[in-house]
Design a protein that fits this description.
The chain contains 11 helices and 20 strands. The chain is α/β, with parallel strands linked by helices. It has 2 domains: 328 residues, Rossmann fold (3-Layer(aba) Sandwich); 98 residues, ANL, C-terminal domain (GMP Synthetase, Chain A, domain 3, 2-Layer Sandwich), CATH 3.30.300. It has a 9-stranded mixed sheet, with helices on both faces. Bound molecules: 5'-O-[hydroxy(phenylacetyl)phosphoryl]adenosine. 5'-O-[hydroxy(phenylacetyl)phosphoryl]adenosine binds next to helix 6, strand 7, strand 8 and strand 12.
């Protein structure tokens, strides 16, 4: 059985956790009210004052925050500290042109990295391990988070970032990597590439993988475990709340423990906003209890899931979330990158196209594909193939700028995309990534 990174807090009694949460929440609400005029206004409009919040049971009184608020308050409107106290930003997709920018003080980075360290230790990591981090480094939180967690545990850290599979494999084999951190689809691809090179699962020294940032099924887990000869652990998080490590799996592989001493979780009905009892499926909402720079209260993740407090044999007492079972918005995760159809539409309109398009997502050889079909207007239509190809390339470049990944663009003749009589069907997702009733 693996140990704990912070045993006292990870195995604290329910009463102890509640006491910590109550104390932190009262302090955090007061701080946010005093320092974040944007949220103060939301509270004032709702007629709630910091004095109304005495325990976590009062959290229902607070207003929600959503991605739309982050867009409205972009870039500094939700800052909870002076900018001079911030040491880092990370960023993820917004719904249209503006990205989400999250700020961190050194305290915030420390607590985030500690959460990632908990995840690494839960996956069996110690200071004798060699951790290969092939999540992207840069604005994405995956690389930075696991990298920091790996340092905290004292592992030898290989800061590979994503891509260049040849080099990943060379370092993995030559430097005896024991824990692999990347998206599950990239892990599956590495497994395939190793097999293609004639390696058997027992030829590598890997023992565990920490995979997240996108939905994956139990079937995928079994495939990855077999091809790499490892135990595969799920890890969840989002930039707005810090990054990976908000929740992570233990050896039970049966739900992810949420770091409840830092992040208070609720499940709500996405339509009514009403808080649902434990065990019911709904939208996950987080309140960050002690972050300084970007202290979001009641942030709607749009991830649909279920929480459970059933006892876990690993000894951790923190509430567990199931794998996200879908979204209450239309966000797609393509090769680990969050993509909103509204971003694609924004580019099309900016480039002078009409919003008649179809987005097709699929998965081939463990890698997601993104194809966008866009109808040309009569004026734009040309039967010269080279004209169309040039436009497609130009549009693919503009999409890459906005999304961070380049779709294959297909310009099609006028009136060839089916019109809908009801809601337009803009997205066809041919992947089958979610175990609906699964863990
Ligand atoms: O994806 C943080 C992360 C990095 C998590 C590395 C795990 C590992 P964002 O780019 O802000 O942050 O995307 C957050 O990704 O709301 C979920 O919809 C989805 N997501 C994250 N982890 C999982 C997971 C990072 N384990 C959004 N399973 C979240 C399914 C996940 N979906």
């Amino acid at each position: 059985m693996s140990g704990y990174y912070q045993k006292d807090i990870e195995t604290a009694s329910r009463e102890q956790i509640l006491a910590i949460q109550n104390e932190k929440l009262v302090r955090q609400v007061r701080r946010v009210y005093d320092n974040v005029p944007y949220y103060k206004k939301l509270m004032d409009d709702k007629g709630v004052s910091p004095d109304d919040i005495k325990t976590v049971d009062d959290i229902k009184k607070l207003p929600f925050l959503s991605k739309a608020d982050l867009r409205d308050a972009y870039p500094y409107g939700l800052l909870g500290t002076d900018l001079k106290d911030c040491v880092r930003i990370q960023s993820t997709s917004g719904t249209t042109g503006k990205r989400v920018v999250a700020f961190y003080t050194q305290h915030d980075i420390d607590l985030w990295e500690e959460c990632c360290a908990r995840a690494i230790v839960a996956a069996g990591g110690t200071n004798e391990d060699v951790v290969q981090v092939c999540y992207g480094y840069g604005l994405f939180t995956g690389g930075a988070g696991l990298h920091g967690g790996s340092h905290k545990v004292g592992c030898l850290t290989l800061p590979m970032s994503s891509g260049n599979t040849e080099r990943q494999i060379q370092f993995m084999m030559d430097l005896n990597a024991t824990i692999l951190c990347c998206t599950p689809s990239y892990a599956a691809f590495i497994g395939e590439s190793l097999a293609e090179k004639g390696y058997k699962p027992e030829d590598n020294k890997l023992k565990a993988g920490i995979f997240g940032a996108e939905p994956w099924t139990e079937e995928m887990r079994r495939g990855i475990e077999k091809s790499l000869g490892i135990k595969a652990y799920d890890i969840y998080g989002l930039t707005e709340i810090s990054g990976p490590g908000v929740a992570f799996e233990c050896e039970e592989q049966n739900g992810m423990h949420i770091c409840e001493d830092h992040f208070y979780a609720e499940i709500i009905d996405p339509d009514t906003g009403e808080t649902l009892p434990e065990g019911e499926q709904g939208e996950l909402v987080f309140t960050s209890l002690d972050k300084e720079a970007f202290p979001l209260l009641r942030y709607r993740t749009r991830d649909i899931c279920v929480l459970t407090r059933e006892k876990c044999s690993c000894g951790r007492t923190h509430v567990r979330m199931c794998k996200p079972r879908g979204r209450s918005d239309d966000m797609l995760i393509i090769r680990g990158v969050n993509v909103f159809p509204s971003q694609i539409e924004t580019v099309l309109l900016n480039e002078g196209y009409a919003p008649n398009y179809l987005i097709e997502v699929d998965r081939k050889n463990n890698s997601d594909t993104l194809d966008v079909y866009v109808e040309l207007s009569k004026e734009m239509f040309s039967d010269k193939v080279s004209d169309v190809q040039a436009k497609e390339l130009q549009l693919a470049g503009a999409m890459r700028q906005m999304l961070g990944i380049g779709p294959r663009m297909h310009l099609v003749p006028p009136m060839t995309i089916a019109r809908s009589e009801g809601k337009a069907v803009r997205v066809v997702d041919k992947r089958n990534l979610v175990d609906k009733g699964g863990k």
